[in-house]
Design brief:
The chain is α+β, with helices and mostly antiparallel strands and about 375 residues long. About 35% of the residues lie in helices and about 30% in strands. Strand 13 and strand 14 form a beta hairpin.
Amino acid sequence: MIPEQTEVLVVGAGPVGLAVAASLAGQGRQVTVVDRQAVGANTSRAAVVHPRTLEMLEQIGVGDRLAGLGIHAKQFNIADGDRTLVPVRFDKLPTAYPYVLMVPQSTTEQVLLERLEELGGKVHRPYVASGLRQTEEGAEVTLESGEVIKAQYVVAADGMHSKIRDLAGLGFSGDGTLPLNFTLADVRVEDGLPREEVLLYFSKAGILVAAPLPDGSFRLVAKVDEAPEHPDVAYAQRLLNARGPRSRTARVTEVIWGSRFRIHERVADRYREGRVVLAGDAAHTHSPAGGQGMNLGLRDAITLGEALATALTTGDETNLNNYATTSREEALRVVALAHRLTRLATVPAPLRPARNAALHLLSHIPTFRSRFAHQLAAIDHR
């Protein structure tokens, strides 16, 4: 049975909601998690975890655990066919995690859920939030099933289309949807692609990301004119032939999962209204360039969990107010970075040779390569 009262109600049991809940449970606070889905996610979706995120996940006891389940990609290469334009190395970064971790989002969620359950928490499914009323003592969330949950604080971790954010009157500003179509496919490939590095191909035909996953498959992402709803083997093969390596053949044997998407760029006007606080995609959404989305959300979660625990323990909301301000400022920086990377990757065809030549020249400057690695790894956000 779902509790009628709790210290913190977390709406949404994706990676961000689970991380907030685990943080609170680990600090001895009462937390209730509800999610609209009957079961958790079973597709890979976000597949990159950055060094700074792993450092912060140590605070809830899952950094090393998650790191042991993925591929440690110590290099990220921007390439044109077989020619490396910009090699970006992570193995020299000042961190205990000198790599980007390639791991499916479903695995990340499972690790976080297991940690929450170890700490005595659970996820209540399927429950859909339909109403919100704030009081002097806290907030009351009404569910479509009729139950009402009273909480001192409510965390909206219910995604880009957050019901709680809208009910709380927290605006979600931005330029909206970029006129760019992307296709995504997790594929099995025979030969042709490296297993321990992420490749971003800047070819004349367009961009292609090829990133290894722990089960032996590869994540392919490409900007295309028309993205199929369900990419097949022939479609994935054409992308690799036109945009990938040239001296060796990467033969696609299976498409495990595929999707398509467009880019949304928005940041909430405010992260807090009374007892309601935003985290993750409910607070910000942007291009997947650089794999920043889930990472920013997980960093939100750990910071917010600490701030809420302090507010509940001492009554002092200073850290909570700081979270609302500083996390929004970081989101604006990340959205701007992802936007720049997207525009760089999707320049018009006539400009692509000049772009590639300029990047190749810049790659000879050590400070450029180092700065780029620090930005992607989020080390500079410490």
